[in-house]
Write a structure and sequence with these properties.
Shape: rod-shaped
Oligomer: single chain
Distance between the termini: 117 Å
Radius of gyration: 37 Å
Strand content: 35-45%
Order of helices and strands: EHEEEEEEEEEEEEEEEEEEEEEE
CATH superfamily of the largest domain: Head decoration protein D
CATH class of the largest domain: Mainly Beta
Number of helices: 1
Helix content: under 10%
CATH topology of the largest domain: Virus Head Decoration Protein, Chain: A
């Protein structure tokens, strides 16, 4: 029969409290592993088992493959050229200089990727200041629950982007300066906005019309000419259309793609070229040559609006409240 050799054995706790002789081997019955002792270190040094539970401490893995059917829990950092996981990742920080692909969940502090990231579901829950940063494109196929900030060049989602689930007073903040950054564009615009109230810095409602030439802001226009509108050249013109807007707050028919498409102010406060004298509150009509003047008894259909300022010069620009009769 073969010779049977038995080593000292005990639980993990018992092994941790035991200091073996130099070269002595003991058995950890809790994890089914071996301990090699050096005569001075309590617990010795655990050898790696393919089935036992092990802790990797101060070890360098060259091109490793970590696989598991459940959750991989890492309390340190995950970094490398490429990070790929078919399950879930849980750790402090995840960093990839190449492709970051996770088909499960990421539960950690920070996610940094300089390549392209494809993540099914992102859950960043280490703390409320955790951030997700990528200099490439971050594509989230499923849901993204992030307690901190998302700092990225572009954020693309194939589903619905939900903001302000916590009911903050301000839901979307402009991280740039005032008047920088649009929502959509003239070629890629949204359909319908459902809001309770809106506000704008500028003051008039305008609509795009095709003019027969370029006209300066503040010019009085009338319906007529080769296209929709032309300069108002008749005094007290009943065909008056409005005033070329300087800075419209709202533009209707904004996608008009025609030569000399012009925003004509229809309602609101708008700078207008006038001839004096004008008293505040005067009814304003066309004066010819694209200008306006005050009229105490205007003809029906000729009124542009009411003067908001006084003017006593020969010609100048004042604010008129368009549409106020």
């Amino acid at each position: 029969m073969a010779i049977q050799v038995q080593f000292r054995r005990g639980t993990t706790a018992q092994n941790n409290a035991f200091t073996g002789a130099v070269g002595e081997v003991t058995v950890d019955t809790t994890v089914g592993g071996l301990r090699v002792h050096d005569g001075t270190t309590a617990g010795g040094f655990a050898t790696v088992s393919t089935t036992g539970t092990q802790t990797l401490t101060n070890k360098t893995l060259t091109a490793p493959t970590i696989s598991g059917g459940g959750v991989i829990n890492i309390t340190g950092n995950i970094s490398g050229n490429f990070v790929t996981a078919s399950g879930n990742l849980s750790g402090a920080n995840i960093s990839s200089s190449g492709l970051l692909t996770v088909t499960g969940n990421i539960t950690s502090g920070n996610i940094t990727s300089t390549g392209v990231g494809n993540i099914a579901t992102v859950i960043v829950s280490a703390n409320t200041t955790s951030t997700s940063t990528t200099t490439g494109a971050l594509t989230v196929i499923g849901g993204a629950g992030i307690a901190g900030n998302i700092n990225a060049g572009n954020l693309t989602t194939a589903g619905v982007l939900t903001v302000n689930s916590s009911g903050a007073a301000t839901a979307i903040v402009n991280g740039g300066s005032n008047a920088i950054g649009n929502i959509g564009s003239s070629s890629n615009y949204f359909n319908t906005a459902f809001v309770k109230a809106t506000s704008a810095q500028y003051a008039d409602l305008a609509e795009m019309y095709q003019a027969d030439a370029y006209y300066e802001p503040g010019t009085v226009l009338s319906f007529g000419g080769e296209y929709d509108v032309t300069i108002s050249s008749i005094d007290s013109d009943r065909r008056v259309a409005g005033i070329v807007s300087t800075d419209p707050a709202y533009i209707m028919n904004s996608v008009m793609d025609k030569q000399h498409a012009t925003a004509v102010a229809l309602v609101g406060k708008v700078p207008t070229r006038v001839i004096g004298p004008v008293q505040k509150g005067d009814l304003m009509v066309s004066a010819g040559n694209g200008m306006a003047r005050a009229d105490a008894n205007p003809a029906m259909g000729s009124v542009l609006g009411k003067a908001l300022e006084e003017f006593h010069g020969l010609s100048g620009v004042i604010n008129i409240v368009v549409g106020r009769l």
